[in-house]
Amino acid sequence: MRKIIRAEAMGFCMGVERAVSIVQKIADEGHRNAVTLGPIIHNQQIVDKFTSLGIPAIDSVDEVNEGRAVIRAHGIPPAERQKLEKKGIEIIDGTCPKVIASHKLVKKYSSMGYRIIIVGDRNHGEIKGLAGYADDFDIVGSAEEASSLNPPDKSMVISQTTIKESEFESVCSVLKGKNSHIVIQNSICSATNDRQTAVIKLAQEVEAVLVIGGKNSANTKRLYLTVTEMNVPCWHISSAQEIPREIFEYDTIGLTAGASTPDWIVDEIEEKLKR
Ligand code: SF4
Hints:
Cobalt-precorrin-4 Transmethylase, domain 1; about 20% strand; 3 domains; flat; Rossmann fold; four-stranded parallel beta sheet; 10 helices; binds iron/sulfur cluster; alpha/beta; single chain
């Protein structure tokens, strides 16, 4: 019989769990005049479920003119929050407490005259939110990009919560080499590290791995990358419908899931693999 092993840490993190339960509560209370600002999580099944319950995801604060708006775990820039307040929209804040802590750090150092160097994916909602709290900032996606910066003494480097520790360290080492006075705030969330550490252990124990999560989920993509870098056969799928035929050639299969993947999707996939 095929053996399926789950990673020791996988699936919903605290921030995602919290944001999803906020929207679920609105749905349970029967409110219809509510939207989420962007997909509440990077998981299409969950977004579709809430849309069918009358709580759609909208792309921009400009699209909401009444009712309630839920901020997702990544947070939003303060300017967008002000726009909502001006329109009299009731804000329901699903920003992860760990992301709020990063906002506070950026605000504090920015008010002391520091340039903020944000390490992460410039198109990610969390980065846009963080940048909104800084007066003067740079966004750096890689050590290569960092090499073209000349950070002043009063620079504070902060990370996107979901990037890999090694990516952050390589950027910081380039920046430190340019100016040893810079302040470094590692705000990588332990949920990300726990899932990365667990998938490395898992990939050593199995013949192949399925990484489960939305195709646009940054932390899911990083789990996939980690396994492929270990030269272990690996697929990134978002649902049981996408299970690749080739996986059935293996007797020991590992499962992991990104921070925005609900347990029921993993359960469904495991069931199919066992057949
Ligand atoms: S990964 Fe961490 S910081 Fe991001 S939402 Fe989850 S708990 Fe919050």
